[in-house]
Amino acid sequence: MSDFVNWGDHIDDRGKTQYFHGRDNILNAFRIRLKYAADDRSKGTTFLIQAAPGAGKSALLHECAGVAEKDGWKAAEIPLSALWDIPTLLDALGRGEETKKMGSWSGGIKGRLGVLSALTVGARINYKSRKITAPRDTIQVLQSGEERLVLLLDEAQVLAKRTPGEHAAHVTILLDAIHNGRLGRPVMLAVAGLSSTKEAFRKFGVSRFKANCYAELGPLKPEAERKVIADWLQMEGLARGDIRPWVEAIRQETHGWPQHIASYAQPAALQVRADRRRMTPAGLEAVLETGRDQRAKYYRSRLDGLPERHRQAIAQAFAAARTDSTQTDSVILDCIQEVCREPGEAQEIFDKALAQGVIDNRNGRFAIPVPSMHDWLLENYGPDRGESLPD
Ligand SMILES: Nc1ncnc2c1ncn2[C@@H]1O[C@H](COP(=O)(O)OP(=O)(O)OP(=O)(O)O)[C@@H](O)[C@H]1O
Ligand SMILES: [Mg+2]
Hints:
Low-confidence stretches: 6-11, 106-120, 122-132
Bound molecules: adenosine-5'-triphosphate, magnesium ion
Oligomer: single chain
Number of strands: 7
């Protein structure tokens, strides 16, 4: 008899990924680019990872940081506002104490950002050599310092939407300076985000990525997927005996999708432990049920802030999708428009759905990013659904 494990509301999804496998080609490309950038400081780089929700972008960004640190680079996670806000950037770089020195400088900074940035990049001023005591903008912050630096920016799909208008010019110059190696020291920007990220960067002038510096993540390959599930069972669950039936049963429902794998493999480890390292049929049933539940919770979290009628409108659009399940933006917009109260609202909802990863841009056509999310959305919000769910 299996003890049922109460898994609670959420799987633990934060921090470093345990049992990371796969993505070897991308990590190799990143390693090669690091070497170029280290050898020649004029070889700036933006390394962009773009993918659907739960494809493993954040996990991969963490791995990139690890690779960089091993090669002697400093890796710093930055929030978006670090691109224009000096104290935020200094904090992220572990140089928070310099903020105190800024004192009276801060009052005059705002209005002059754009001009100063253009000047500093053009003239390659090193504020240290000029004996300036505090940086005047984030470009100067990055210019000052000796070590090789990788900046890690996650959730970067919001770049265009969340950069305040008054900072847009400065951010454009900063991104160009990093991308084209104009900071006088090796600085790389590693970026991850949903499928609108590349487009957001294009709006800020970064559109041509160097060879292998742009990656779209798909599912994990079967071999990597098996290894992740096996590690969870054996290392975390301390499973005894033949794990293959469990691995394959879980793979039937995860299709290589890291978020799904985590939804099933973590509960599987707990279940095996609770069953004193044995893998029982009842234990497997409980794991599959929990996994499905976790998966649905994740999808639901993606729909946050979209009212029921908007969810239904999106599902309606995809109910009419072609067999490859993609749809044009005009069909989706028309469906949303039908349930809208205000003119212009449909585009706003469409953009929100795109930004939250409810829909995914596939070269100008649109899809629900993960096949099982597509099915789930139609089951719960589509025209043939049963009872409707609360928002
Ligand atoms: N290559 C991998 N090997 C093992 N586990 C992974 C791998 N990639 C991701 N994971 C795990 O899968 C889950 C989802 O990954 P992650 O959070 O990185 O996805 P994401 O694309 O950043 O999602 P979101 O769009 O929600 O930000 C996490 O639990 C993560 O630890
Ligand atoms: Mg993420």
